[in-house]
Amino acid sequence: MKVLYSAQDIDATVRRLAATVHDDYADAKPLCVCVLKGAVVFMTDFIRAYDDYLEIDFMDVSSYYGGTESTGDVRIDKDLDTSVKGRDVLIVEDIVDTGTTLKALKALFAHRGARSVKIVALLDKPAGRTVDVQADYVGETVPGEFLVGYGLDYKGLYRNLPYVGVLKPEVYK
Ligand SMILES: O=P(O)(O)OC[C@H]1O[C@H](OP(=O)(O)OP(=O)(O)O)[C@H](O)[C@@H]1O
Ligand code: HPA
């Protein structure tokens, strides 16, 4: 495992993101939507670094059914409890890879009448993109390798690593 971002690196990035997002939501009370399960670690750190009113909710969406390849399909396994109508929705994601998940969620929340829909992603992997979507706030732009740790998994494992690392191809090839 090669460490790409240490726990210290991530902490600085999360604080920077929270401050930048806050500047843009001065008088708003965003509804932060955590995309389970990968974003849960980032979400909990992000909201504690965000020093103002916000609400949270959770949505479970899967497109990677346990492996390293996107199926291209997005399946809603758990929907929000909160209505997004008229709300400023901030989607909190661990990584944008093919873009499939975020494109589907953005369209869904717009269709449900959100006032605004923005995306904060800890990691952005442009080399993986197959659909046209861009996060509004990005922590780090990462290479086109399969990453694990800080919420990111391979077959359900490694989410609890406090750092982000590159999974060696021999582990999954
Ligand atoms: O840009 P994309 O190609 O759509 O990839 C990004 C999504 O893939 C991963 O989730 P996954 O579907 O593996 O579920 P998980 O969060 O439960 O691991 C990751 O946490 C993002 O939500
Ligand atoms: O690089 C990744 N690692 C883990 N999960 C992911 N989901 C999309 N890309 C990745």
Automatic annotation (TrEMBL):
Chief subcellular location: cytoplasm
Assigned EC number: 2.4.2.8
An example Gene Ontology molecular-function term: magnesium ion binding
Record-linked Pfam families: Pribosyltran
Domain of life, source organism: Bacteria
Keywords on record: Cytoplasm, Glycosyltransferase, Magnesium, Metal-binding, Nucleotide-binding, Purine salvage, Transferase
Subcellular location: Cytoplasm
GO CC annotations on file: cytosol
Pathway membership, UniProt: Purine metabolism; GMP biosynthesis via salvage pathway; GMP from guanine: step 1/1; Purine metabolism; IMP biosynthesis via salvage pathway; IMP from hypoxanthine: step 1/1
Cofactors that this protein relies on: Mg(2+)
Phosphoribosyltransferase domain segment(s): 6-154
InterPro entries: HGPRT, Hxn_phspho_trans, PRTase-like, PRTase_dom
Family from the record: Belongs to the purine/pyrimidine phosphoribosyltransferase family.
Free-text function comment from the UniProt entry: Purine salvage pathway enzyme that catalyzes the transfer of the ribosyl-5-phosphate group from 5-phospho-alpha-D-ribose 1-diphosphate (PRPP) to the N9 position of the 6-oxopurines hypoxanthine and guanine to form the corresponding ribonucleotides IMP (inosine 5'-monophosphate) and GMP (guanosine 5'-monophosphate), with the release of PPi.
Protein name: Hypoxanthine phosphoribosyltransferase
